[in-house]
Amino acid sequence: MAKIIDRKRLVPNIHMIEISAPDIVKRCKPGQFVILMPDEKGERIPLSLADWDEKRGSITCVFMVVGTSTQKLSRLRSGDDIPVCVGPLGKPAEISKFGTVLCAAGCYGIGAIYPIARALKQAGNTVMTLVDAKANYLIYWEDRFKEISDKYFVSSRDGFFDCKDYIPKVLKDVLKDNKIDRVISIGCTYLMYTCSEATRPLNIDTYVHLNPIMVDGTGMCGACRLKVGDSTQFACVDGPEFDGHLVDWNELFYRRKSYFNDEIRSLCYWEREEKPRKMTKEKR
Amino acid sequence: MGEDRKQLSPELKEQLRKAFNEEWRKELRKSIPAKERMKMSRQDMPQREPDVRNKDFKEVNQGLTKEAAVKEAMRCLDCANPQCVRGCPVGIDIPSFIKLIEKGEFSESARKIKETNSLPAVCGRVCPQETQCEELCNLKKATGVPVAIGNLERFVSDYEREGGKVHVPEISVSTGRKVAVIGSGPGGLTVAGELARKGHKVTVFEALHVPGGVLVYGIPEFRLPNDILNAEVDYLRKLGVEFRMNFVVGMTMTIEDLRKEGYDAFYIGTGAGLPNFMGIPGENLIGIYSANEYLTRVNLMRANQFPKYDTPVFLGKKAVVLGGGNVAMDSVRTAQRLGAEEATIVYRRSRKEMPARAEEVHHAEEEGIKFHFLTNPIRYFSDENNRVKAMECIQMELGEPDSSGRRRPIPIEGSEFIMEVDLVVVSIGNSPNPLIGKVTPGLKIGKWGNVEVDWNTMATSLDGVYAGGDIVRGGATVILAMGDARVAAREMHKYLSA
Predict the structure, then answer these.
(1) CA-nearest residue of chain A to B251?
(2) CATH of B178-273+433-497, one of 3.30.230.10, 3.55.40.20, 3.40.50.2000, 3.50.50.60
(3) pLDDT, tens only, A194-226
(4) Regarding the domain delimited by B10-162, which CATH topology (the fold level of the hierarchy) does it fall under?
(5) Contacts of A201 by beta carbon, 8 Å cutoff, 6+ apart
(6) Domain A100-256 belongs to what architecture?
(7) If you classify domain A2-91+261-274 with CATH, what class do you get?
(8) Which residue in B234, B245, B466 sits closest to A216, CA to CA?
(9) What residues of chain B lie within 8 A of the CB of A68, using their CB?
(10) I need a surface site. Which of A148, A169, B3, B110 has the fewest CB within 10 A?
(11) Phi, psi torsion values for A184, nearest 5 degrees
(12) Is the ipTM of this complex over 0.85?
């Protein structure tokens, strides 16, 4: 059992959850993830570490509400227990002095990329951040990123900020105006794919953090296997950081949505049978 | 490799001889002449009807009745030189426990087994007795039909558990030494039980959220119900064993970290947690699972009860399982139970070479599983959603024996054909889980990714660190893991007492 310290909605559909994890916090590194289970019937869901606090003995993850298990997670409150919080899992992100690194992220990935950006800054890199959202009210952790970024860009399709476009277009502009040595991209599969495609012709090293469905998270099952270059890799133990120019994106797109119909069935069942009828005074 | 058919140790020989000469044993032997015993026929294991059981996950074998168990026990000749014990990797005093059944002392019999085996209800169900104790049974040599040792082992452990009076043996005075057992599979549980009884403080670390390792994520409930396993785990808790779930040694903490926390000795029983794939085109298509993933989804995550449980699993109409081992049988029978119209085993050699237990193959056949022998897939085809829809296979013939002693399968040119499939489970074996080796400096790893040990002691290259089971052997069996664990526990006790 692991205790929930805090859970709050950051922006519509995206929540952060802070969990007491005194063992994990001592060893976790940027780019690693944990597996959570919201209750005994839930799925084991991998979530990137978005932050941690050694003094509080806690880790923080940011997640988007997609299926039943994330719905359940989004209803947890301070003091609740969850049956599974295991980690840290996966290889840490490669952190060293690369020069200028651009961190491009969207939705839950904004949280997931934060500790990597912070570590890159601490390692002496010039860090630029590009955050993508459909609309201005979906941006979060702006202050945190501004604090560690030498330059901070936003792309949103509502034109609220400086750029009104989807991330690859803005990314191309940023790449044109700045000398970038390395790009890290975390977000939905499409975002990571488009970022990788944008940098491919420019030959800029681009690393993505992949998030296929996992079960055990320790290399035992192979649910998260995908083709990278010529070989099949397990995202849970060989990754989650991979060279975006070598990933077989087509395969990953299909893998990501392979349980789409089941996810809908599961949600319908949960809405009908198990969803709490009354929303109590919940901290939003 | 370890000697699976060892000569009995002098101590065990002496123990068997003493038990053989006890007065009650002499009288029991005299009560029915050996000739009469040899005429008795083997008691059948009651089973649920094939076309009923292949639709649910309840246990197939129903266990012997008291009367049947006593009758079966009478068949045992109580030999002066019992060969059966030689076939048991953990060296159970088989004649003693069987004769206690004949005498009607079932609880005593259960205790007798537990002197050497902490998981009798598990072993009575999943051990390949027909190639171990029962194969060497003298009655088999005489009549062709051995004593049903496995069924009797299962009977007494069930009797004890169902009576609710599980005997907890005396635990030695606390030694103050701490032991970390890594992995809660059959080997880990065995080491934990042995060392806890000797007075050491044992903690079992498990990466998943339920204890049992392969016994819970791998073996389906129709062969080993979770309740049985839970009872065995509870028994260990009563012995003072602590379980720490959701803890990946190597990631959450390393062996060195645990040493600093005061652990004196370690047992690595992390199993063969790396699924092998064939490396043929299309193997990453949707609908192709490793057996580990498929069985874990169903057994651990309960996908068979989806959507009550959140984890889904693909329900194939035409399900194919590749391989001929016990895991393949478990997978194909699971697919059948999940509603496949056709559940088929595709195996590259012939029936004779299948490593699965005869009983499992027989059960599978009864339940309507189809078998394609001498057939091997060479590539897969997908539909527009990248989901597997067909598999190209090639026919094989058997050539000369290879290093495993089985005849090597050779493809027959021009024999390719297409099989329609919508679910494939790859069950061609597992390799040792590489995780612990990668993060433990100084731990010697062999060329197959296995942890290297001294086979006499199961000691690894690191001081105080022992290992056994599939992490050392690659994919083997529950009972071999338990045999390794017993050797390791003996040596760890010596190490801790020094």
Answers:
(1) A88
(2) 3.50.50.60
(3) 999 999 999 999 999 998 889 999 989 999 999
(4) Fumarate Reductase Iron-sulfur Protein; Chain B, domain 2 (1.10.1060)
(5) none
(6) 3-Layer(aba) Sandwich (3.40)
(7) mainly beta
(8) B245
(9) 307, 310
(10) B3
(11) -115, 135
(12) yes
Whether A2 and B246 lie within 8 Å, measured CB to CB:
yes
Judged by CB atoms closer than 8 Å, whether chains meet at A219 and B274 is answered as yes
Instruction: Please report, for residues B8, B73, B414, the alpha-carbon distance to residue B119 in angstroms, rounded to integers and kept in the order given.
Output: 21, 21, 50
Closest CA to B226 of B58, B102, B83: B58
What's the CATH architecture for B277-428?
3-Layer(bba) Sandwich (3.50)
State the DSSP H helix or E strand holding residue B354, giving kind and residue range, or none if neither. Answer: none
Q: Using a CB–CB cutoff of 8 Å, tell me whether A66 touches chain B.
A: no
What is the residue-wise DSSP string for B362-405? HHHHHTT-EEE-SEEEEEEEE-TTSBEEEEEEEEEEEEEE-TTS
How many Å lie between the alpha carbon of B313 and the closest alpha carbon of chain A?
8
Tens of pLDDT, residues B288-305: 999 999 999 999 999 999
**Which among B292, B312, B386 is the nearest to A221, CB-wise?**
B292
Greatest mean pLDDT among A257-261, A273-277, B391-395: B391-395
CA closest to B207 among chain A residues: A86
